[in-house]
Amino acid sequence: MVGKMKLSKSSIGLIIVSFIFYLYATNSFSIFQRDSALEIVDFSIENSSVDTDIPSNPYRNPYYGDLHVHTKYSFDAYIFGVTATPYDAYRFATGEAIKHPLGFDMKLKEPLDFYAVTDHGFYMGMIENYADTSSKMSKNEWTKPIHNINRPENVTVESTGERADLFSSVLSREIINKPYPWWHPNYLGAWLTNNIQLALTSFDYDVHKSAWADVAKAAEEFNDPGNFTTFIGYEYTTSTEVEGGNLHRNVIFNSSNAPIRPWTRIDSLNPEDLWTWMDSLRNKGVDSLAMPHNSNGSNGQMFEVETFRGNPISKEYSEKRMRNEPVVEMTQVKGTSDTHPLLSPDDEWADFEIMDKRVGSRPPTYSMPQGGYVRDAFLRGLTLEWEGRGNPYKFGLIGSSDTHTGAGAFDENNYWSKVGVLDGTDMGRGSVPLSQDRIDQLTQYSIDFNQPLSTKKIEGKTYADVGFDQWSASGLAVAWAEENTRDSIFQAFKRKETFATTGTRIAVRFFAGFDMESIDLNSEDMVKNAYAKGVTMGADLFSQANQTPQFLVWAQRDKLGAPLQRVQIIKGWVETASGTPKEKIYDVACSDGLVADPVTNRCPDNGARVNINDCSISNDVGAGELKTTWADPDFDPAVKAFYYVRVLENPTCRWSTWDALKAGVKPRPDLHETIQERAWSSPIWYIPDSSDLEIIPL
Question: Which of 465, 486, 521 is the last residue of a domain?
Fold first, then answer.
């Protein structure tokens, strides 16, 4: 009788290694391996209230929404004290009030038309699990600082120092990324499913999938075709290893079908790998879009002239990027990415809500402007195309909030900022002087956590110095779509018939063609004729026998906002002989019957003013709408160019001035007291010859 044989760990390991070597030698890996990120789940739920008779407008309506929203499932939001669920976020978007972590109500002036909860795919749902002392993961020693962090008694202003330390350190600790031993079943499971996360001791796949499924189910529950649209989505959160440039993207799906898990930075830091995954899903019938955001904090790396791995950009790269990234989020809480004063010194409005620091850098670190702003990207795209490498930066524009409270704060006069407890008070945002108690707390925090003192003296008063003063009440994504449904709005994103606003609900039409001047601007058929005679924002306009094109612009004010001051067209091109990029700004429509100076191309001052003592504004100047047709006086039919619209409201008080007014103190002297809310259209690209079009986005 043969006795039972006991194998040592080393023997087991030898057997496993031998087996793996055999598989490698015989090229048999594929027999066992599958890619979990390509498993498709139908998250749809029965909804008997679906209206099959949805009104449709062939000439399209503007739908206002936010495609960048975080809830408790985001690792950073939960650390910031946020316990709002995806369901809370959608209730907010449809007009309900929800609670800020510090207890006050957050409510919109008007409901939105569409919304997407886009929690970080990276460690989605895990921090809440660490905090739950009944969970298996909470038994790990390194989770103790997070235990019960969001019990009501722990969600206080006094906890901001501890929370900031957790945000900057906990996920960078070595233990977080510590893998299981190579012989552990989870390690083998990670390989078999191409899911590296499974090999990490800090990762619970069931928790992760459950959080993702809840995000998807909330979107499904609130999707109401014809009335309110939601998208299943998440944020791909990545950066460069060395310089820490922000390369984040939001990914949204076009239907109820989505992968069983989000594809994250743990899978790869390289956005090109993200696009490959998206292409693979598309081949399986699941379409998606990735939307780069906060490019101003990328340290110049979002719109590079080389690939992530440092190779020259090629036509293939350009095609792949444009297929997956047709729109870019160019305004949000963390500043505006239109342009920078260093990039556009002749643009008087370039210095608008500039955040020139990299997000999360401690101490705050400067972000290189070149390669981080959309106007510069448009010019780089033309330059690359001029060099025969395609154009990877031929994208449309949207805005969104990047709120981490589930609720976007779009209004300057009702601004609760973004990161929960950390910036939920005026003192925390740096807009009003600190009390002595808060100074003492911040001083003690710098000692306890070995951090630089986060205060600054200005004219004898002490303010918080944490970068929140550079944040913005912004922004909104707007899609011109036939109806308020997923498919219709998603297709608007794909064709780039979109525009961005800073939170105001301006409406912008933008067309180009060779017979725009024949259109009666006061006719009820104006829009119908514009579609018939030309192309709209986001499109290409091909030359016609060297004719000069005309542009039709129509802007309408937000009924709850300030009157319009001017409409501008921003042109960019590359000099044919030298390849030098150029830009120029034209004021094409002025309020109050004013006319732009033919030399400066600028409207005269319309006299609109703001009373800083009460934030009242001039209501007797400005326009409810501005519309015109315009031809480029410097047009060259042989030169490829882009044109996009910027609409400016009359000045109003900035959120920091409103904070000061409500607190009964003077506005902080080193911050802008006023701003001009605005909207930006997607560009129209003039193409001299149809054969010269390098890239046709899919």
Answer: 465
